[in-house]
Amino acid sequence: MSGPQASWTILAMLRWTADYFRTKGVSEPRAAAEILLAHTLGISRLDLYLRYDQPLNPEELARFKALMVRRREGEPVAYLTGHREFWSLDIQVTPAVLIPRPETETLVAAALEVAEDFRGEGQGPTAPAFEDKFPPNDIGPAKDHPKIQNLKPKPSPLLGAEIGVGSGAVVIALARELPALAWVGVDLSGAALTVARDNARRHAVLHRVHLLRSDLLAALKPTPAFTLLVANLPYVPRAEWERLPREIKAFEPSGALLGGEDGLDLIRPLVRQGHQYVLGGGWLLLEVGDGQAPTVAALVAETRAYDRIETVKDFSGIERVVRARRRQAAG
Question: What 3-state DSSP class applies to 55?
Answer without folding.
Answer: strand
